[in-house]
Amino acid sequence: MHRDSVGSVQDIEPGAVNWMTAGRGIAHSERTPPELHSVRRRAHGLQLWAGMPKALEDAEPSFTHTDGSAIPEERSGEAQVRVLVGRAWGMESPVRPVSETLYADLSLPAGGRIDIPPLAAERALYAVEGSYGLEGTPMEPYAMAVLPAGDTVRVEAETPARIMLIGGEPLDGPRFMWWNFVSSRRERITDAASEWSAHQTPRIAGEKDWVPLPGSPPL
């Protein structure tokens, strides 16, 4: 169950996309729903962080939920493709990021293949299940493979595989990241850490727990 300081209360559901934009600052919690407290279960998901353009770093925070049934899905050759964010293979996701973003879920049977065109300026593959070959090079699960810019590459599954394709336009400069804080300005991270320690950051309605900083940000 996702809750945040802009008032969102939303289950995290299989196949759905929860898109939270931090902007100038947001706090959130993720709790086991009461009906699952006594249920033996496993959770398996991906959380991706997408850097915002400098001009929008201090924008208002927001949260949107897109149900799994709204995510476009089609077969492309031997692959089942779901376009979670962005545009690919003639499909467009209803999720609206603030910059050009690509996020697709590719499922392949053993021996299946798919050619991945240059759908974005920057692209990478990350397998969450099964092994595959990338232009003939064996790739194992849980390893990030950055693809050459502008090239069409062939992916062949050695076993049934589920591979995430992520990417988008390059960031407009470097970013600093420490704990849960990200900014193009180092001093903004130091300020955010001080605000957090002083309990001057947004609060989540109904949440009483507070997570202290894991130390001090590096100078």
What does this structure look like?
- By secondary structure, this protein is mostly beta strands.
- Helix content is 5%, strand content 37%.
- It has one helix spanning 186-197, and strands at residues 2-4, 9-10, 17-21, 28-30, 62-66, 73-76, 79-85, 87-88, 91-92, 101-108, 113-116, 122-129, 132-134, 137-139, 144-146, 153-157, 161-168, 176-178, 181-183.
- The strands form six sheets. The protein has a six-stranded antiparallel sheet, with no helix packed on it.
- It is globular, with a radius of gyration of 19 Å.
Search tags:
5% helix; mainly beta; four-stranded antiparallel sheet; 219 residues; globular
Question: Can you describe this structure in just a few lines?
Answer:
The protein has 219 residues and is mainly beta. It has one helix and 19 strands. The strands form six sheets. The chain has a six-stranded antiparallel beta sheet, with no helix packed on it. A four-stranded antiparallel beta sheet has the order 11-16-13-14, with no helix packed on it. A three-stranded antiparallel beta sheet has the order 2-1-4, with no helix packed on it.
